[in-house]
């Protein structure tokens, strides 16, 4: 079995701290939590991918296998009783983060979404297109086009890693965040220390050593739902990274 290098575990840990903690106080409170779990979480994603997520497996299949692994890691972490219970209802009864956060996904995740969209009927695709905010209105505060009228994700099995990992232990904090906007210091208190470790490890496995290129979900959906050729190109893996951040 491959070994997880200290250097890689440390790099992922430091990347998370840098992005997540705006203040010294945040780093002070957050680092011990992350350090305790970092090696184990990163190792599970980076070193132990299952046989059906290996390099010879076709790409969408490999990404789905990694999604499943990430789901298992999140479930195991939450089940370890190290953390407060999540406020997110088990039955999906809260979709506030699908309606108020900037939803981003990597180009590889976008290719998987494109394949799923190809499998939808014309009327199902038209419904998603109809939900998209008008041009220039995407981003924080806009509702994800994949969220249906019942508050469920249309492509739940293919949802990006950000959606799979985000949990909060305080619905009040989520409501405050929606009301007041992002505050990196608060995240230390109400989100979990493992989510960014899982995300960064996931992106590392998908593209080792590369900085992922991210797209905004609604902008991506608008670009493929109104253009059959673009949708087919994304779905077939001819990934475009131009002008869609
Ligand atoms: S993270 Fe917050 S907003 Fe999102 S589902 Fe959980 S409680 Fe609701
Ligand atoms: S992709 Fe699905 S889970 Fe993610 S924000 Fe959109 S509706 Fe919510």
If you had to describe this structure to a student in words, what would you say it looks like?
This is YkgJ family cysteine cluster protein. By secondary structure, this protein is mostly helical. 56% of the residues lie in helices and 2% in strands. It has one domain. It is built from 12 helices and 2 strands; from the N terminus they run ααααβααααααβαα. The chain has a two-stranded antiparallel sheet with strand order 1-2. The C terminus is likely disordered. The site of one iron/sulfur cluster (SF4) has 8 residues, from loops.
Instruction: Give the count of helical stretches.
Output: 12
Helical amount = 55-70%
Overall outline: globular
Structural class: mainly alpha
Keywords:
binds iron/sulfur cluster; 245 residues; two-stranded antiparallel sheet; single chain; 56% helix
List the helices and strands and how they pair.
Layout (H helix, E strand, L loop, with lengths): L5 H15 L3 H23 L12 H21 L16 H5 L3 E3 H12 L3 H10 L29 H5 L5 H10 L3 H7 L4 H12 L7 E3 H9 L2 H8 L10
Antiparallel strand pairs: 1-2
Helix pairs in contact: 1-2, 1-10, 2-9, 2-10, 3-10, 5-12
The structure holds iron/sulfur cluster (SF4) (2 copies).
């Amino acid at each position: 079995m491959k070994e997880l290098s200290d250097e890689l575990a440390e790099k992922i840990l430091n990347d998370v701290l840098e992005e997540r903690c705006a203040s010294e106080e945040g780093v002070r409170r957050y680092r011990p939590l992350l350090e305790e779990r970092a090696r184990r979480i990163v190792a599970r994603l980076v070193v132990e991918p299952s046989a059906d997520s290996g390099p010879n497996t076709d790409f969408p299949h490999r990404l789905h296998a990694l999604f499943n692994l990430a789901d298992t890691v999140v479930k195991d972490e939450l089940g370890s009783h190290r953390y407060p219970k999540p406020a997110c209802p088990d039955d999906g009864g809260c979709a506030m983060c699908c309606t108020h956060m900037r939803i981003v996904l990597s180009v590889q995740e976008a290719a998987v979404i494109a394949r799923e969209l190809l499998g939808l009927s014309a009327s199902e695709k038209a419904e998603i297109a109809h939900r998209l905010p008008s041009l220039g209105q995407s981003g924080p505060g806009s509702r994800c086009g994949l969220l249906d009228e019942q508050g469920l994700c249309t492509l739940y099995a293919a949802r990006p890693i950000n959606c799979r990992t985000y949990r909060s232990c305080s619905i009040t904090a989520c409501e405050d965040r929606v009301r007041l906007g992002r505050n990196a210091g608060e995240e230390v208190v109400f989100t979990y220390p493992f989510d960014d470790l899982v995300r960064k490890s996931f992106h590392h496995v998908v593209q080792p050593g590369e900085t992922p290129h991210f797209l905004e979900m609604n902008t991506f959906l608008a670009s493929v739902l109104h253009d059959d050729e673009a949708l087919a190109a994304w779905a077939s893996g001819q990934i475009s990274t131009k002008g869609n951040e």
